[in-house]
Amino acid sequence: MSSDSTGSVLSLVMIAEANLALNVVLFCHKAQGDVQESGGQLRVFL
User: Fold this and answer.
1) Which whole number is the average pLDDT over 8-32?
2) What's the rounded Cα separation, in Å, for the pair 39 and 33?
3) CA–CA separation, 30 and 4 (whole Å)
């Protein structure tokens, strides 16, 4: 049972990381469209 729960937690974490990465990419593209300079700064920090 513990190995099953670790596997599902790992897959949830991977899904969450993938969603976060996608949101960061979309956000950076949007920020670049609005203000190119701050878009570049965001990419450096993230």
Assistant:
1) 90
2) 8
3) 39
Higher pLDDT: 1 or 4? It is 4
Other C-beta atoms lying within 10 Å of the C-beta of residue 24: 13
Nearest to 31 by CA among 23, 22, 40: 40
CA-CA distances (angstroms) from residue 22 to 5, 10, 13, 27?
26, 18, 14, 8
**Angle at 14 (CA atoms; ends 9, 19), nearest 5 degrees:** 125
Structure pTM?
0.51
> Which residues, other chains included, contact 28 with Cβ-Cβ below 8 Å and sequence gap of 6+?
39, 42, 43, 46
pLDDT computed for residue 22 by the predictor: 94
